[in-house]
Each structure stands twice: as structure tokens, then as C-alpha cells.
């Protein structure tokens, strides 16, 4: 297989992953960053892969935010939003000062920690009524968005502990993810000087964009027909395998 064919096959694979992530995002309200981030960090590395996830997550969140805008809780959104930036700062320094192998290990560890938050957090966290945990959740979401391209797990755990109405939470999560992705992309491109457009094949962007729109279209039609729990369970399994693989690759690189 020559380089051109191999590159197209890789772009096609990335498009398929983006499509699946977009479907899950629309059906369950989360899952794009967890699924796509775990796969692309392995395929393209922890820097380029996660940045591409951030860019596609930004675009996906624009579409889902618009389609779910009727039930957004703007009061909570305005409170959480500034803390996304707070949490992204340590993530920025970690990316800037860490080698590729160690960063791959960190990506895998943060991904598995995020999954543990979703699976275990809802069982052991006591009910909360104050807004301070929302600030913590926002900061953690900003950090994980920078590192693995997924800001949803921390907000999900906060929503479960605060008994946030699911429809309002799912709708408000979309602009939160949009802001987190925007912050991550801006910092990586402007502050850290990453340039994925120059490094990544055009076919990745073209086919990935097609996969994103097709996945969102499919997800919109499947929303309500596929149980959210099953969609999330699928995401968690794939993301767990991706996190373990990222850890192994990072250890091997060291």
C-alpha cells in the first residue's frame, strides 16, 4: 500500500470515528470527545490527535447547541463558563512541557480517570445543592478538554450529584462543550503555536467534516429511539479500551 492510499485509508477511518462520535453525542448528549479522543490520540498522537478532536468537537457542539437551544439553563452556563478557562491553564502548561511518550501516558490516565468519574462518581458522590461544586466541575472540564478533548465527564458527575434535570442538563452541556473546545483550540493555536492545518492531510478535514454532519443527521433521527444508557455504555467501553491503549503506547514510547 503506497503512502497516498494509506493516508486516504487513515482519513476514512478517522471520518468513521467522527461519524460514530457525532451520533453518540446527539443521541446521549455526550460521548464525542471520549470516543473520538481515545481513538485519534492513538492514531495521530496526543498533540495532533487531541487538537483535531477539539476542532471537530467545536463544530459538532455548534450544531447540537443550536438543535437543543430551547432547554439551555443560561444561569448555570454563565456560572460554569469562566471556570473552563481556569482549568485549561494547567492543561496548557502540561502539554507545553511534556514529552510525547509521557503525554500519551497522561492522556490515557486522564481518559480513564474521566471514565471512572462517570461510572463511579454517580454512585458515591453525595447530593449537592451549592454552586461551588459547579465551579470545580467547570475547571476539571476545562482541563480534560485540553488534555483529551472531552469536557463532558466532570459536568455529567456534577449534574448527577446536583439532581439537574436531564433535559436541561443535556441541552446546557452542549454550549459548555462548545466553549471548552473553543478555549482549547484557541490556546493550542495562538498560545502554543500548534498548526494542525499544515500537518494534517486535507482528506482528514474533508472526510471528517462529512462524517460529522452525517453522524449528527443520523443521531438526530435516532434520538429517542436508542436508549441513552446503551449509547453511553458503548461509549464508555470503547473509550476505556482507548485509554488503556494510550497508556501502553506511552509506556512503550518511554
**How many strand units?**
0
Rg is: 17 Å
> What proportion of the residues is helical, as a percent range?
over 70%
Report the sheet-strand fraction: under 5%
Number of helices: 11
Q: What number of structural domains do the residues give?
A: 1
In the predicted model, the low-confidence regions spanning at least 5 consecutive residues are none
Mean of all residue-level pLDDT scores: 83
Helix/strand/pairing category? mainly alpha
Largest sheet: none
Oligomer: single chain
Q: Quick one: overall form? A: globular
The ordered string of helix (H) and strand (E) elements is: HHHHHHHHHHH
C-alpha end-to-end distance: 29 Å
Present the secondary structure layout.
Layout: H1 3-28, H2 32-44, H3 48-67, H4 74-96, H5 100-124, H6 132-148, H7 152-161, H8 166-191, H9 196-199, H10 202-222, H11 228-253
Helix pairs in contact: 1-2, 1-10, 1-11, 2-3, 2-5, 2-11, 3-6, 3-8, 3-10, 4-6, 4-8, 5-7, 5-11, 6-7, 6-8, 7-8
Amino acid at each position: 500500500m503506497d503512502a497516498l492510499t494509506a493516508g486516504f485509508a487513515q482519513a476514512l477511518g478517522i471520518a468513521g470515528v467522527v461519524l460514530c462520535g457525532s451520533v453518540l453525542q446527539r443521541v446521549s448528549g455526550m460521548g464525542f470527545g471520549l470516543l473520538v479522543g481515545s481513538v485519534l490520540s492513538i492514531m495521530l498522537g496526543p498533540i495532533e490527535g487531541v487538537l483535531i478532536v477539539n476542532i471537530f468537537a467545536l463544530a459538532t457542539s455548534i450544531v447540537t447547541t443550536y438543535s437543543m437551544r430551547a432547554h439551555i439553563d443560561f444561569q448555570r452556563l454563565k456560572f460554569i463558563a469562566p471556570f473552563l478557562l481556569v482549568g485549561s491553564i494547567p492543561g496548557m502548561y502540561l502539554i507545553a512541557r511534556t514529552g510525547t511518550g509521557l503525554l500519551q501516558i497522561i492522556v490515557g490516565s486522564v481518559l480513564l480517570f474521566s471514565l471512572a468519574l462517570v461510572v463511579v462518581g454517580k454512585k458515591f458522590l453525595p447530593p449537592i445543592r451549592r454552586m461551588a461544586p459547579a465551579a470545580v466541575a467547570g475547571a476539571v472540564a476545562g482541563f480534560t478538554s485540553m488534555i483529551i478533548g472531552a469536557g463532558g465527564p466532570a459536568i455529567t458527575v456534577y449534574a448527577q450529584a446536583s439532581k439537574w434535570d436531564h433535559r436541561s442538563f443535556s441541552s446546557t452541556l452542549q454550549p459548555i462543550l462548545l466553549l471548552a473546545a473553543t478555549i482549547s483550540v484557541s490556546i493550542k493555536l495562538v498560545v502554543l503555536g500548534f498548526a494542525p492545518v499544515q500537518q494534517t492531510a486535507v482528506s482528514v478535514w474533508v472526510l471528517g467534516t462529512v462524517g460529522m454532519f452525517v453522524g449528527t443527521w443520523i443521531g438526530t433521527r435516532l434520538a429517542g429511539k436508542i436508549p441513552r444508557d446503551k449509547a453511553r455504555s458503548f461509549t464508555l467501553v470503547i473509550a476505556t479500551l482507548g485509554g488503556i491503549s494510550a497508556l501502553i503506547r506511552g509506556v512503550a514510547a518511554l
